[in-house]
Amino acid sequence: MSCPICEKRKAERFCPAKGEKICAVCCGREREVTIDCPVDCSYLISAHRYEDEHQRQFPADTPLLDVTLPSELIHTHEQLMAVLAFTIAKFCAAHREATDSDVLTTIQALAETTRTLMTGIYYETQPTGQLRRELYGALTAFVAEIKQKQAQGGVALKDSDFFYLLVFLYRMGLLRTNGRPRSRRYIEFLRSQFPEVQELKREESRIIVP
Q1: Reduced to 3 DSSP states, what percent helix, strand and coil does the chain have, rounded to the nearest 5?
Q2: Listed range (69-78, 102-111, 148-157) with the worst mean pLDDT
Q3: Residue 13 parent element (H or E)
Q4: 88 with 98: CB under 8 angstroms?
Q5: DSSP SS3 for 182
Q6: Quick check: pTM over 0.90?
Q7: Which of the 8 DSSP states describes residue 35?
Q8: Which member of 68, 82, 83, 179 has the lowest number of beta carbons within 10 Å of its beta carbon?
């Protein structure tokens, strides 16, 4: 039986996403590109294991790589960073179609918006696409709520604090994803840090103020 994708080579690998066998070449070429692979696919797991052994190189013009992060960033704002990551994981649990690209593009857009605020100018850089705008809105609402709660307690978090945390999450995402259009490696990593995120669809939003 020939591969249903290329219609040339012999179909040898069972593809759980398509529910039928495809050839090894199409499996490697279309994996997380045109094929929406389930995370428990054995071929996907093997491919990810290989990727982990060969770190990606990023072009010099990759966004936000020129930012120097404060050395004390994680120690000082560890809980706030965790809650930002939790907010992303919660959103993606409710929107299973979300990909790493959606998350990274949204984080980058919010970081750029926050960078303008640091200069005293407000210029919003919103991502394109409905899902990305919804994630952008969820993160923006979270940041606004944190700022309000902190202000009520007599403490004011700087825009720079959020900017550096967003840059950190963005860079971490670049290292976790593989760059394929339908990759969810970064999302799965975030979800693995918060096992309870699977139940969040039935829960009220929970905000932890550092």
Answers
A1: 55, 5, 40
A2: 148-157
A3: strand 13-15
A4: no
A5: coil
A6: no
A7: B
A8: 68
Query: How many CB atoms lie under 10 A from the CB of residue 111?
Result: 22
41-46: long-range contacts at Cβ-Cβ below 8 A with a sequence spacing of 24 or more? 41/15, 41/16, 41/17, 43/13
Beta carbons of 21 and 15 less than 8 angstroms apart: yes
Residue type, 24: A
- How far apart, in whole angstroms, are the C-alpha atoms of residue 29 and residue 137? 34
Which tens digits make up the pLDDT trace of 127-177?
999 999 999 999 999 998 888 887 777 667 788 999 999 999 999 999 999
Residue whose entry in the numeric block shows the structure tokens 């389930």: 38
- Backbone φ and ψ of 195, nearest 5°: -55, -30
Residue type, position 54, single letter: H
The percentage of the chain sitting over the pLDDT mark of 70, rounded to a whole number, equals 91
